[in-house]
Amino acid sequence: MFETVVFYVFAAVLLLAALRVITARNPVHCALYLVLAFFTASAIWLLLRAEFLAIALVVVYVGAVMVLFLFVVMMLDINLERLREGFWTNLPLAVVGGGVMAFEMVAVLAERYYGAAPRTRVMPADYSNTKELGRVLYTQYAYAFEIAAVILLVAIVAAIALTLRRRKDTKAQDVAQQIAARPAERVRLVQMPAEKDR
Fold it and tell me: What is the pLDDT tens value at each position of the chain, 198 positions in all?
């Protein structure tokens, strides 16, 4: 009973945080609400005894991705009025997409409660879901895992290539010009008369 109450509390906080991600006006507040949504999702995964996934969500998304998001949002000068211009034109498509996702979730839950009895497996005392996840990931889904790694590598290289541009206002060293410099061209000796004590 206590687990069910905690689950519903975390689920309510997760839904409210996700709703505020798309309705908050300030982009920094949106990113912080997304951090709250990640934390509550990891708490729900802890309730489902998926400790590795919960810790991975906190470490990877909250610790790395959200820091990057906040850095980008705070460093860019975002024109909020321009971002909100296409909201109402894209709303019907968003409602249809959200309805399809909601229908799929309801169908999965309905099959769980009204369909065939779920297969339960009794786990031994020394069972580790992290070890089981690693075994399945590196045996049954090894090729898919490697393909995902290659896609991420290509995305990283593409992001670097897209953002690596030469700016006109940046100053860079020209080593050849520095080596070719001569002291006679750089230093000018000025003869000044000596000052006399009064």
Answer: 888 899 999 999 999 999 998 888 888 888 889 999 999 999 999 888 888 888 888 888 888 888 888 877 777 766 666 766 777 788 889 899 989 999 988 888 777 667 655 566 677 777 777 888 888 888 898 999 899 999 999 998 988 888 776 667 777 788 888 888 887 777 777 888 887 776
Contact 36/17 with Cβ under 8 angstroms? Answer: yes
Domain limits of the chain?
Answer: 1-78, 127-162
Indicate the CATH number of 1-78 among 3.30.70.270, 1.10.8.280, 3.30.300.20, 1.20.120.1200.
1.20.120.1200
